[in-house]
Design brief:
Length: 114
């Protein structure tokens, strides 16, 4: 958990540095592609084709790819979509919707897992 938290902090700082120079679209595409490849490596590790150290490494790389693109950028997009007087309301509504969807996934997942 400590290693993943450290990777999370470092990758968020890297995202802050890369956001303006690379562009948001490029970071989201790289983030999605890297996360997809990491998911494949994790599945191959869990099926026994790769060793468990590769799964651990893939989880940390997954977190770093998430924090470079798909973690922070959607929050910035919501803030830029609306006029300044509506930003607080839009951010509150999007945050509430995000947590409501997380709650629904948490409720439904145990039934889908059976």
């Amino acid at each position: 958990t400590t290693i993943v938290g450290a990777v999370n902090v470092v990758a968020t700082y890297v995202a802050l540095l890369l956001m303006d120079s690379c562009g948001r679209r490029t970071l989201i595409l790289w983030s999605s592609g890297g996360m997809f490849i990491c998911c494949i490596v994790i599945v191959l590790s869990l099926l026994g084709f790769l060793n468990n150290i590769m799964a651990l490494l893939a989880v940390n790389v997954y977190v770093s790819f998430f924090e470079i693109g798909l973690g922070p950028i959607p929050w910035l997009i919501v803030a830029e979509m609306f006029d300044a007087k509506y930003v607080t309301t839009a951010m509150a509504a999007s945050c509430q919707l995000n947590w409501a969807c997380n709650f629904v996934v948490g409720l439904v997942f145990p039934y889908l897992n059976e």
